[in-house]
Amino acid sequence: MQITLNKKWLALGVAAALTTTATFVVAVEDAANKPMIAPKTMADALHLVMDSDRTVYTRKIVNRLAAKEKVITASEHFDDEKALVLPAQMFRFGAEMVAKRAEKLPDVNFSYSLQSLWPVNTQNAPKTDAEKAGLKFVAENKGKNFYTTEELGGTNYFTAIYADTAVAPVCVSCHNDHKDSPRRDFKLGDVMGGVVIRIPLES
Amino acid sequence: MRTLQLSLAWLLPWTFAVPAVGLAENPAYLQLEGANLAQGRTIWLGTCEGCHGYGTAGAPIPMEKDDWKDRLKKPQSLLYQHAIEGFYGPDDTMMPARGGNTKLSDADVKAAVDYMTALAKHYQQFSAKP
Fold first, then answer.
1. Which ipTM value was assigned to this complex?
2. A-chain residues within 8 Å CB-CB of B60?
3. Residue B84: is its pLDDT beyond 70?
4. Contact map slice: A 125-144 vs B, CB within 8 A
5. Where do the domains of chain B lie?
6. Which end of chain A is more exposed for a tag (fewer CB within 10 A), N or C?
7. Domain boundaries, chain A
8. How far is A60 from chain B (nearest CA, A)?
9. CA distance B101 to chain A (A)
């Protein structure tokens, strides 16, 4: 087969191809930056990922290897005891790493933390009114999340709070017996605290 | 201000009334006939509902047909044993021994299992959602 190409048509074809590619790149970039995810959807999605990761860690690592097979323990003093970190510690370490890495990413702007009205570590007590109200709400309304907006230091935020529940006997025994715990009557299935996710709202 | 005072006065008796009504009247869960199931329900609300009412930790919900379809085929004695001794599911979910409540006797746990399976059987026939 022979292809004959008129120079003029070739030039036109190349030009057309280039414009199409350019338009395509611009279009993709526009789609990627088009604001369309509602803050609540973003918070729910973030929480879904955090919660699933933590659940998998609890089941496939802690439950399986520590509780069931007994080949290793999980402990608050994981360094000294050469043990697994607790699921709650795993979560906090993740939150701390996210906060640090996000400093270098100006577009990534959210924070999360694990808090409680009855904290072992007073650093994990609620600080804002929204946090206090939300932790109370999720503790009293099992199965429901709490959503609100709040203004902090001149910026408006969307704040979502999700219950953190006692899923294993060790959650209860460790918190009830911990010397720094202000509450000692937790039982399995109780809401022990909550995950607070905060996303700035552009004005 | 006057309306606020009025509404507060109206609320006051309720704050005392609500805890007094307590678990036994929890309308979210069916009352079933017989002394065993009534006792089982009270125990279930006190120790098991925190997980089994919501699917916490992967606990099977009696109001969800699919959660219990296959479990109801297990012998009741095996379900008792799993509830008393504790049990790990195939996906490494954990049913803690006696729901974590060491104060419950074997008979208490069995009554709670009876209530939960009776509830689950009910919802195999009738959907929980209207």
1. 0.74
2. none
3. yes
4. 142-143
5. 2-125
6. N
7. 12-200
8. 6
9. 8
